[in-house]
C-alpha cells in the first residue's frame, strides 16, 4: 500500500471554484479508479488550505506518483500552490 498527498494552498478568490472542481474530480474518480480511494480535507483554521489523500492498493509504487495523482496535481496548479508527495507504508 502507498499513498499520495497533494497539498493545496489556494488563492483566496479561487476557493469556491476549486471546491467545485474537486467535487467534479471526485465524482469521475469514484467511477473509474477502483484500486484507488480518495479523501479531501480542508484545514480547520485556514479556509484556503486543502489536502487530498490518494490511497493506492497496489504494492508497486511509483516514486513520481500515479497517473491520477500527477493529473490532479497538474490540473489544480491553476488554483494555488501545490505540493505532491508519495509515501510508502512502513514495514517492520
Provide a short characterization of the protein structure.
The chain is of the alpha+beta class and 92 residues long.
Describe the overall structure.
- With 92 residues, this protein is an alpha+beta fold.
- It has a domain of 57 residues.
- Helices cover 30% and strands 36% of the residues.
- The chain has 2 helices and 4 strands.
- A 4-stranded antiparallel sheet has the order 2-3-1-4, with helices on one face.
- Strand 2 and strand 3 form a beta hairpin.
- The radius of gyration is 13 Å and the shape is globular.
**Helicity range:** 25-40%
Q: Label the overall shape.
A: globular
Low-confidence blocks of residues: none
Task: Give me the count of strands.
Answer: 4
Radius of gyration: 13 Å
In which order are the strands of the major sheet placed?
2-3-1-4
Q: Which structural class do the helices and strands define?
A: alpha+beta
H-E string:
EHEEHE
Q: What is the arithmetic mean of pLDDT?
A: 88
Number of helices: 2
Instruction: Please give the largest β-sheet.
Output: 4 strands, antiparallel
* N→C terminal distance: 14 Å
Strand content: 35-45%
List keywords for this structure.
single chain; 92 residues; alpha+beta; four-stranded antiparallel β-sheet; 2 helices; 30% helix; globular
List the helices and strands and how they pair.
Layout: E1 2-10, H1 15-32, E2 36-42, E3 49-56, H2 67-76, E4 80-88
Amino acid at each position: 500500500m502507498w499513498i499520495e498527498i497533494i497539498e493545496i494552498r489556494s488563492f483566496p478568490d479561487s476557493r469556491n471554484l476549486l471546491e467545485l472542481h474537486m467535487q467534479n474530480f471526485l465524482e469521475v474518480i469514484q467511477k473509474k479508479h477502483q484500486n484507488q480511494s480518495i479523501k479531501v480535507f480542508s484545514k480547520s483554521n485556514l479556509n484556503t488550505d486543502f489536502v487530498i489523500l490518494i490511497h493506492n492498493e497496489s504494492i508497486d509504487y511509483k516514486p513520481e506518483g500515479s497517473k491520477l495523482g500527477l493529473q490532479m496535481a497538474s490540473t489544480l496548479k491553476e488554483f494555488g500552490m501545490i505540493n505532491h508527495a508519495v509515501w510508502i507504508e512502513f514495514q517492520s
